[in-house]
């Protein structure tokens, strides 16, 4: 590499840690579905559970993790809680991840999907 090309300014450790946490939150099939639903409008836990095919308690646990990671926001109205995607960055991040998944033609997609399902079964995420 030519030293005259300029220095590459690496992100700070804090930025890297936050990015790692965001990607960790996206590394779950139900959380991807929950976020996708929230990109299309505000929802309650029960509505999300019905839309993504999971129990309300499971969705609530996923939402707590997503909220701690800064990917979703909650609005309370009396005893009800309504969730939305945190901001436009979440929308772009999920769009890009799904776009990449659609266009990853160079991978043996059958093997990738098989490995993802195997990993989920081993973690008990099915």
UniProtKB/TrEMBL annotation:
Every HTH arsR-type domain range: 11-105
The protein, known as: Transcriptional regulator
Gene3D superfamilies reported for this sequence: Winged helix-like DNA-binding domain superfamily/Winged helix DNA-binding domain
InterPro entries found in the cross-reference section: ArsR-like_HTH (IPR011991), HTH_ArsR_DNA-bd_dom (IPR001845), Metal_resp_trans_reg (IPR051011), WH-like_DNA-bd_sf (IPR036388), WH_DNA-bd_sf (IPR036390)
UniProt keyword terms in alphabetical order: DNA-binding, Transcription, Transcription regulation
Keyword field contains Transcription regulation: yes
Keyword DNA-binding on entry: yes
GO molecular function per UniProt: DNA binding; DNA-binding transcription factor activity
Organism: Nocardioides glacieisoli
Top-level lineage group: Bacteria
């Amino acid at each position: 590499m030519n030293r005259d090309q300029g220095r590459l300014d690496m992100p700070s450790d804090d930025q890297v840690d936050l990015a790692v946490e965001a990607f960790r939150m996206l590394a779950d099939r139900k959380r991807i579905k929950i976020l996708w639903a929230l990109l299309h409008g505000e929802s309650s836990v029960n509505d999300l559970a019905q839309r993504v095919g999971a129990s309300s308690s499971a969705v609530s646990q996923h939402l707590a993790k997503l909220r701690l990671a800064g990917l979703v926001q909650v609005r309370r109205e009396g005893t009800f809680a309504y969730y939305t995607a945190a901001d436009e960055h979440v929308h772009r991040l999920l769009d890009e991840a799904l776009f990449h998944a659609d266009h990853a033609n160079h991978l043996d997609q059958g093997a990738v999907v098989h490995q993802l399902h195997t990993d989920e079964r081993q973690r008990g995420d099915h």
